[in-house]
Amino acid sequence: MRDRAAYAEHIAEVLAGPHGAKVGYPIGLRELRVLRRAALSSALLRLTFGGPELDGFHSYVPDEHIRLIFPCADGVLRLPRRDGLSLEWGDPRPVSREYTVRRYEHGELDVDFAIHPGGLASEWALAAEPGARIHIAGPPGGVVVPPGYDRYLFAGDITALPAIARWLESLAPTARGWAVVEVRDESERIPLPAPPGIEVRWAYRGGIAPGSGDALERAVRTVRPPAGERIYVWMAAEAGVLRPLRRWVRGTLGVGPKDCLIAGYWKRGVADFDREE
Asked: HEC string of the chain?
C-alpha cells in the first residue's frame, strides 16, 4: 500500500501542473461510531464519527466522498468485500448513500447531512445519537486542482454546501472568484469563511421544491468573469438543474472539461442517483 508520503508526492505533481486531476486512494471499509451531533442550520446536520478503525483514513483535498452503508430492504446488512486496494460490492449490491468528507483531523471525521423527508441517510442521521455505529467505505480518491487559476467559481444547492465550504477553506488567501449557493431561505444558511477575493452569493428558492426551479441558474448567470482570465468551475446540484449551466460554462465561459467539475449529486425521484459528471 502506498504510504502518505507517496500520495503527497502525487498530489504535489498535479498541483504543479496546468489542470486538475483525480488522485486515487486505497478504498477502505470501516465501522465507526457517532461521537457527537450538531445542527448547523435548519437543513444541515453534522455528525462527527470516530473509532479505532478510522486510523489510516485518507483525506487530502476538498472533493472527496465516502459511502455510508445501510441494511437492505430485507433487514440484512450486506457489506462490500475488500479486494486489494478496492472494494467488491457484489450482487445484490449493498445499500449505500454518498456524502462529502467535510473534515478529517485529530482522529475525527465530520459528515454534513442535508435533511429532507424520506431520505434514507437523512432519516438515519436525524435519529442517530452518540454511540450509533455505521460502516463507511472510501473515499476512492479526490480531485486535485492546481492553484494557478485567476478565478474560481463554485456553485451548488444545499447538498453541495459542505463541499463548497471545504473548498473555500482550502483556497489561498489571495484567491478570487465566486461561491453561489441555493437554499430555501436564510434559515438554511451557514457561515462561509472565504478569502477576501471570493464573493459569496446566496440564491433563495423560497417555497419551490428543491431541484425544480431556476434560482441557482439565474444567480450563477450573473457572474461576469473578466476577459482573458483562466477560470476553474466546480458545480454540484440536482442533475436537471445543472444541464443549462453545463452549456453556459462551456459555451459562454469557454471553460473546457479539464478546467471544471460539474456533478449531478442527485436526481428528483431517483434514490441513490449515480452522480452524473
From this structure: CCCHHHHHHHHHHHHCCCCCEEEECCCCEEEEEEEEEEECCCCEEEEEEECHHHCCCCCCCCEEEEEEEECCCCCCCCCCEEECCEEECCCCCCEEEEEECCEEECCEEEEEEECCCCCHHHHHHHHCCCCCEEEEECCCEEEECCCCCCEEEEEECHHHHHHHHHHHHHCCCCCEEEEEEEECCHHHCCCCCCCCEEEEEEEECCCCCCCCCCHHHHHHCCCCCCCCCCEEEEEEEEHHHHHHHHHHHHHCCCCCHHHEEEEEEEECCECCCCCEC
